[in-house]
Amino acid sequence: MALSEEKQKQIVDAAIAEFQEKGYAGASMDRISCRANVSKRTVYNHFESKDVLFSAIIQRLADRLNAALEIAYDPDRPIRPQLERLAWAEGDLLTDPDFMKLARMVMGETIRDPELAADMNSRMTKTAVFEEFMARANADGKLHAPDPQLAAEQFLGLIKSQGFYPRIFTDAPVSREEMAGIVDRSVEMIMKSYGRE
Amino acid sequence: MALSEEKQKQIVDAAIAEFQEKGYAGASMDRISCRANVSKRTVYNHFESKDVLFSAIIQRLADRLNAALEIAYDPDRPIRPQLERLAWAEGDLLTDPDFMKLARMVMGETIRDPELAADMNSRMTKTAVFEEFMARANADGKLHAPDPQLAAEQFLGLIKSQGFYPRIFTDAPVSREEMAGIVDRSVEMIMKSYGRE
DNA sequence: AAGGTAAACTATTCAGTGTAGTTTAGGCGC
DNA sequence: GCGCCTAAACTACACTGAATAGTTTACCTT
Q1: Which positions are tagged coiled coil (chains A, B) (predicted)?
Q2: Last residue of a domain, which of B57, B80, B103?
Q3: Which tops the pLDDT comparison, A5 or B63?
Q4: Is residue A63 part of a domain?
Q5: Domain range spanning residue B28?
Q6: Whole-number pLDDT of residue B112
Q7: SS (H, E, C) chain B
Q8: Could you say which of A122, A168, B19, B108 has the lowest number of CB atoms within 10 Å?
């Protein structure tokens, strides 16, 4: 139903804000329902517990990440713009304030438990896509990266060390202009190391 | 009193572990007293509230950081080993599991509030020491860094981007050997950019 | 006498439930 | 289109039970 879906969206939005501000333990279901302009019972009709609600939000973040990074290597196009596009797939997320807020929240909750954090990090860090891409370009003779996994990690590392980690503690993500520079420099570095132009 | 001091240490250690595991909101004063093998009243005799106890731990971390970084430029010694020593002052902390655990805890608590996070970051990031050092070496003619603040940030950034950020989510800090490499490469880069040998 | 212990106690917050009543949207006869 | 019905979804609110910050009291140890 349309109404139900709308209520659900209100709940999720309110929950994101509440979890973001107070953390999991500090968040209150009463406040969430209040922020969502919805009765507490409705919250529980949509999400059977606080935990389920929290997990649903995490899942939403992961889904979004996976969707954004569905990029495959195309042998018919030159390598450099493809690397740029790949970098921008990550860059788009990192320049989005909402994504960064969500990411910050998840990090705050998981950082204390290294195992959980590692799991979350692997769900959030789609090295696999980068790795696959590198391996394909390699096989196609457009790159010369003996260790595609390392190359993928370096590529992502270059982007995140400039565009993500330094901004975890800040309200403002990197601007599109800054990201353009980051993408350029990162692609340049990968091309210098592994390029075959 | 010696006994009292010992109890206090037990309390602080237990509190660190508890805050680390559960976060501020999730931590329980009952569990802290239990972990410390101390009565709850004793906890409250030493620290008048949960908040005070938490702050005391933060302060302890900040103090340790400040103490570790009390390094001044010495015009009578060559610049490179002095840069290495400065880098190692930071490196020592980053290779210490206890320090990293504390840092992770503080980050988890502050990350949600950008203002608090920025404040904490400034308390934890002693750019000032690096900056002062750079400026002195500059005035002494051993370095040529037109913007000492930038140079200091770059120096620290090089170290932290390799030795800190990638390890926030991991249980294991960088090893001393890895840190040696990080220090070498970072000093090398600074010398290449600003050196006058 | 100084500091510690143990355990009960207060007051509060909060996750989650139960219930009785209300809104909404769509279907159906007309 | 119009009134009427139904069922699902929502609301308001009181309630339970558990956890928890912080206090009090009476007693113990060195």
Answers
A1: none
A2: B57
A3: B63
A4: no
A5: 2-57
A6: 77
A7: CHHHHHHHHHHHHHHHHHHHHHHHHHCCHHHHHHHCCCCHHHHHHHCCCHHHHHHHHHHHHHHHHHHHCCCCCCCCCCHHHHHHHHHHHHHHHHCCHHHHHHHHHHHHHHCCCHHHHHHHHHHHCCHHHHHHHHHHHHHCCCECCCCHHHHHHHHHHHHHHHHCHHHCCCCCCCCHHHHHHHHHHHHHHHHHHHECC
A8: A122
